């Protein structure tokens, strides 16, 4: 029997080593020191430039918070509109004889992790094959998109060596495009070894 897609490979774990934590701590210390120096310069010298820089930083923070809230409202509205849909409806958007179910589930899982919220105030946003990656999942940047595709490929047991090369670079506009692109990638040896399972 074919191994079901629920046995996807685990997501790769990104961990900071001791050097990474040290660099992060030094950056935080440098930012705090810079902030302290700005406040001291404003209090002692009354430098107006410090006021304008502080106002700009405050405006950027407020704009970021507002944008995040608007994005959350958008996702909550999508969750309400799509409450009767599930991964089964998403999978039926593809021909299971042509498209690997592991790819379908890997794409669903990775995108779901980005938009769904847990906890008492949480919600679930079902994914549609024709959702645009830039609009619904904020994957506007090529680097973010490639990183997301690599994560999906890893979980589905597909080689990432050809991603970004000619014939395997896009355009990847919708979720359907991502599924079909990943389905065209060759399987890894580890995935081939897990194609079949004992009944």
Give the SSE string: HHHHHHHH
Count of structural domains: 2
Structural class: mainly alpha
User: What is the number of beta strands?
Assistant: 0
| Biggest sheet character | none
Helix content: 55-70%
What does this protein structure show overall?
The chain has 199 residues and is an all-alpha fold. It has 2 domains: 18-80, no CATH class; 85-193. Helix content is 59%, strand content 0%. The chain contains 8 helices and no strands. α4 packs across α6 (142-156). The longest helix is centred in the first third of the chain and has 34 residues, at 48-81. The radius of gyration is 22 Å and the shape is elongated. The mean pLDDT is 84.
What are the defining features of this structure?
0% strand; mainly alpha; 2 domains; 8 helices; single chain; 199 residues; elongated
Lay out the secondary structure:
Blueprint: H1 18-45, H2 48-81, H3 87-91, H4 101-115, H5 133-137, H6 142-156, H7 175-184, H8 189-193
Helix pairs in contact: 4-6
Give a quick summary of the entry.
This protein is mainly α and 199 residues long.
């Amino acid at each position: 029997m074919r191994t079901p897609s629920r046995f996807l490979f685990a997501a790769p774990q990104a961990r900071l080593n001791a050097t990474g934590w040290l660099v992060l701590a030094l950056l935080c210390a440098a930012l705090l020191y810079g902030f302290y120096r700005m406040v001291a310069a404003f209090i002692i010298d009354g430098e107006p430039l410090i006021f304008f820089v502080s106002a700009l930083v405050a405006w950027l923070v407020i704009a970021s918070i507002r944008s995040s809230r608007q994005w959350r409202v958008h996702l909550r509205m999508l969750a309400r509109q799509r409450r009767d849909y599930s991964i089964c409806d998403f999978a039926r958007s593809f021909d299971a004889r042509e498209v690997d179910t592991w790819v379908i589930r890997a794409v669903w899982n990775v995108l779901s992790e980005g938009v769904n919220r847990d906890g008492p105030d949480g919600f679930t946003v079902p994914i549609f094959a024709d959702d645009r990656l830039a609009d619904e999942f904020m994957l506007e940047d090529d680097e973010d998109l490639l990183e997301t595709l690599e994560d999906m490929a890893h979980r589905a047991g597909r080689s990432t060596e050809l991603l970004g090369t000619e014939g395997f670079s896009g355009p990847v506009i919708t979720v359907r495009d991502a599924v079909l692109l990943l389905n065209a990638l060759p399987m890894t040896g580890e995935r081939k070894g897990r194609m079949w399972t004992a009944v």
